[in-house]
Amino acid sequence: MPVPQDIAACRLCADRFAASATGHAPAPVVWFRPGARILVASQAPGMRAHLSGKPFDDPSGKRLREWMGVDDATFWDRDRVAIVPMGFCFPGYDAKGGDIPPPRLCAATWRRAALDHVGQVDVTLLIGGYAQDWHLGRGKVTDRVRAWRDLAPRTFCLPHPSWRNTAWLKRNPWFEAETLPGLRTAIGDTLAR
Ligand code: SF4
């Protein structure tokens, strides 16, 4: 069976999710196909994406599209953008309402096969610490984002576009002034080819 259908049918975390404060069932959000030029290596779907089945269908996604300089149609065009998170399902909230990290089991089970299914891309966005650690080894998000020129224009380390990082954005104005123009140029060049 092809990989996307395998992942869509996966229920490995059913017990884990049932035990979370959200008590939800697995609902993998699978949004990639071979031939995409841009890889969004992200964390995990949020509650809204869990309900809609569409990745980044929320304010974080709106911010991410602004960062990338792409419209909705381009972002959700699987022939151009592959979205491969560290966890394909919404991990749920803990008893205090905090986000539960993506289950390690998901990347261990599916990540390599999903990336191989997408194939070679021109630009990779590594969003947040979980994806950055998997692709690059352990490190600090701010250090990696600050050193964006080391990997550009093929790879960009980004903070998560969540509202929780609004204070981080205010503390690090160089990100919007320098990193994002570099990111938009790389993405624009790729989409124009
Ligand atoms: S998070 Fe990943 S491993 Fe767990 S049920 Fe969803 S697809 Fe399967």
What attributes does this structure have?
193 residues; alpha/beta; Uracil-DNA Glycosylase, subunit E; four-stranded parallel sheet; 10 helices; 45% helix; binds iron/sulfur cluster
What would your notes on this structure say?
With 193 residues, the chain is α/β, with parallel strands linked by helices. It has helices spanning 3-8, 14-18, 47-52, 59-68, 72-75, 104-118, 128-136, 141-146, 166-171, 174-192, and strands at 38-41, 81-83, 123-127, 155-158. The protein starts with a helix and ends with a helix. It is built from ten helices and four strands, in the order ααβαααβαβααβαα. The chain has a single domain (3-192), classed as Uracil-DNA glycosylase-like domain (Uracil-DNA Glycosylase, subunit E, 3-Layer(aba) Sandwich), CATH 3.40.470.10. The structure holds iron/sulfur cluster (SF4). Iron/sulfur cluster (SF4) binds at residues 7, 10-13, 26, 28, 87-89, 103, 105-106, 109.
Topology:
Layout: H1 3-8, H2 14-18, E1 38-41, H3 47-52, H4 59-68, H5 72-75, E2 81-83, H6 104-118, E3 123-127, H7 128-136, H8 141-146, E4 155-158, H9 166-171, H10 174-192
Parallel strand pairs: 1-2, 1-3, 3-4
Iron/sulfur cluster binds at residues 7, 10-13, 26, 28, 87-89, 103, 105-106, 109.
